[in-house]
Amino acid sequence: MKVKLRVFRGREGEGHYQEFELDVDEGASVLDCLEHVRFRLDETLVYNRACHHGVCGACAMLINGKERLACITKVRDLGEEITVEPLKNFRVIKDLLVDPSPMFSKLKLVGARMLKASEGYKVLDECVECGACYSSCPTYSVFKGFLGPSAIHFFAKEPKEEGLKAEETGLDGLWTCLLCRRCVEVCPYDVDVPRDARELRKEYVRVVLRMGGRCR
Ligand code: SF4
Ligand code: SF4
Ligand code: FES
């Protein structure tokens, strides 16, 4: 099928859109289109990918304005005009490649506290750490101190000593989550961060009440 691919080219604060006319298979993914461009038309195009089947999280980007994984997004579901742009709320390194380190710092922060609290480490089994939720989150877009969606999920999921969890919950801006569900709408694995946030809030209140209404 014929596809007109419009791709963001450039760096943070400066860029333009480049158009490519492609003829791809019916079953092609958006990542296949990008590979086609890179290997046949313009080797300078920069983007991230690894697994090609939706498990590494590397290929998250804006596709027709919505955060998606390029490798599992089929061209036939999008129509003949496709615009690809880098994720929002991360620094653009070049073209479609962003710097995800702020998200990983949040995950590390939660993991470090988790290690301290539970003396154990569990790999997330749902979240592929793609960053789509951070890109879509209105709270994170204005408050970079916000723990952020996937870190909230990670934090809520891990067992740890109750008092410590409550203390961390208060410190990390959890109460600024709007429960708006934009992160759920874009998550490739339907991670329900608002549910996690509500559970953490309930736990926080329970612990504060048990402490006689005092919080730090
Ligand atoms: S919670 Fe979902 S959208 Fe967010 S990083 Fe994990 S997989 Fe991606
Ligand atoms: S529900 Fe909370 S974490 Fe998810 S997008 Fe909205 S404000 Fe962000
Ligand atoms: S390349 Fe791994 S999720 Fe797309």
Task: Report what the structure shows.
The protein has helices spanning 30-41, 101-118, 132-136, 138-142, 149-157, 162-171, 182-186, 193-210, and strands spanning 2-11, 14-23, 60-63, 66-69, 81-85, 91-94, 97-99. Residues 112-124 have low confidence and may be disordered. The strands form 2 sheets. A 5-stranded mixed sheet has the order 2-1-5-3-4. A two-stranded antiparallel sheet has the order 6-7. By secondary structure, it is an alpha+beta fold. It has 2 domains: 2-99, Ubiquitin-like (UB roll), CATH 3.10.20; 101-210, Fumarate Reductase Iron-sulfur Protein, Chain B, domain 2. It starts with a strand and ends in a 6-residue tail after the last helix. It contains 8 helices and 7 strands. Helix 5 packs across helix 8 (193-210) and helix 6 (162-171) packs across helix 8. The structure holds iron/sulfur cluster (2 copies) and FE2/S2 (inorganic) cluster (FES). One iron/sulfur cluster (SF4) is lined by residues 136-139, 149, 177-183, 193-194. One iron/sulfur cluster is lined by residues 57, 127-133, 149-150, 153, 186-189, 191.
